[in-house]
Design goal:
Helices cover 49% and strands 11% of the residues. It is mainly alpha-helical and 368 residues long. It has two domains: 153 residues, DNA polymerase, domain 1, CATH 1.10.150.130; 167 residues, Intergrase catalytic core (hpI Integrase, Chain A, Orthogonal Bundle), CATH 1.10.443.10. Strand 6 and strand 7 form a beta hairpin.
């Protein structure tokens, strides 16, 4: 490999032949690199990608993986993955070629993760350990599908971590009503938390809401965007998942309350956020309102859990709840089931009534 200096433009370029995945020999030219190192790195990655080979170090594959998947993700989602890969995966696998990663390597890596400590001295949560393992597996699956890796060695290793983290926290309806009264002194807080609790939307979805998202006559709320704070800047993106785009039916009282709120903010343009506050503001208000109301302090996101728990208690199906809150699968909604006490006794009593009702209709018997 070689890189050449373009004296006129004061930049570097590469010019080379390569063999593509179909075995055809082709010529490639690329200019405009600021350094020789950047030019050579681009050439190396291009040749590896064009040839569809897995005979590449994980650290080099990482740049190829990023190029392939970055455009399909929300920025904050990629940043989470990026941190995980660069701090938990590359330090161990970075110098290994993909073809050299074995189940034994992964098992040794698991041991390191299980013994690793956070800054506060504690161990990583089971859910986080599982997420790290899944990220490595996703990268290797990508290599199998697109770069000729024979198989994913993660499949031969038992996962670490767990799907179930700490018990899901939530408020009962009575606890929320106490909280809502406690924060009525601030209009933005009161109406924002009403939407969060009674509609079950995410905090990012709330912060992106505009007047145009509401149809007061139809009593509906349209969710099709989310506000994410990235490096101190608010960026409006699509919802977290495709299923996050949805129309939510509001209860009558909430539609009336939002109509009242719009009168209070009548100078706000229809395309501007109606709750122009940071995430930190809402976290602070959760602390303030919880203290005044005398209820346990929960996370802002736990209001979404509270909405789901209320709907389950009211008897709505997992399918209907998933559509309302924008869960990507029903299984996510079913994860909340453990929050509720067993209803086996109630089921048995209702089955008794069903049988008694049937016998009460009368059945003819024949005499022998």
């Amino acid at each position: 490999m070689a890189a050449y200096k373009d004296e006129k433009r004061k930049t570097w370029y590469v010019q080379f032949y390569y063999t593509d995945w179909d075995g055809k020999r082709k010529k490639k030219w690329k200019r405009g690199f600021e350094t020789k190192r950047e030019a050579l790195s681009w050439e190396r990655n291009f040749v590896l990608k064009a040839g569809g080979t897995a005979d590449v170090a994980m650290k080099d594959f990482y740049s190829m993986y990023k190029e392939d998947v970055f455009s399909r993700m929300r920025l904050n989602t990629w940043m989470t993955k990026e941190h995980m890969i660069e701090t938990k995966i590359l330090p161990f696998f970075g110098e290994m070629k993909l073809t050299e990663i074995t189940p034994l390597n992964i098992t040794k890596w698991h041991t390191i993760l299980l013994n690793a400590k956070k800054e506060d001295g504690g161990n990583f949560a089971d859910t986080y350990l599982k997420t790290i393992h899944v990220q490595l597996s996703a990268m290797l699956n990508h290599a199998v599908k697109n770069y000729g890796l024979h198989e994913n060695p993660c499949r031969a290793v038992e996962r670490i971590g767990s799907n179930r983290g700490e018990e899901i926290e939530f408020w009962s309806k009575e606890q929320y009503l106490k909280f809502s009264k406690a924060i009525m002194d601030k209009d933005v807080s009161f109406y924002a938390f009403q939407i969060l609790y009674w509609c079950g939307i995410r905090i990012g979805e709330l912060r992106a809401l505009t007047k145009g998202d509401f149809d007061i006559n139809k009593k509906t709320l349209r969710i099709d965007k989310s506000t994410q704070t990235i490096k101190g800047e608010d960026i409006v993106t699509k919802p977290k998942t495709a299923s996050g785009v949805r129309t939510i039916a509001m209860p009558d009282f909430l539609a009336d309350q939002m109509e009242e709120y719009f009168l209070l903010i009548e100078d706000t343009p229809d395309d501007k956020p109606i709750f122009p506050r940071s995430k930190a503001y809402f976290h602070t208000e959760m602390t303030r309102g919880s203290k005044i109301a005398g209820v346990p302090r929960i996370r802002v996101h736990a209001l979404r859990h509270s909405h789901v728990s209320l709907l389950i208690e009211m008897g709505f199906s997992a399918v209907d709840i998933a559509k309302r809150v924008g869960h990507s699968s029903i299984s996510i909604t079913l994860d909340y089931a453990h929050m509720f006490p067993s209803k086996q006794d109630e089921m048995a009593k209702r089955l008794n009534r069903e049988r008694d009702d049937s016998n009460g209709q009368g059945t003819e018997t024949s005499e022998l």
